[in-house]
Amino acid sequence: MPSAIKGVLIECDPSIRALVLNIDAKTHDIIIEELDETHLMVDENKVEYIKSELNKLLAKNTFVPEGEE
To answer: Taking the model in full, what pTM does it have?
Structure first.
């Protein structure tokens, strides 16, 4: 018997897609299907986790000139 998983369609640019794939590589329970270069189907219960992890990664990779911290 087939089973269904509720998912959310995410549209993003390829660089953000790569970050989401990296986040999923740790647990393998976030991405349901990779649709194309800009679309991913993800578990609806993991959307807030993805947002949180992306914010952490993007904050870590943001350049802040010296003296403006």
So the answer is: 0.80
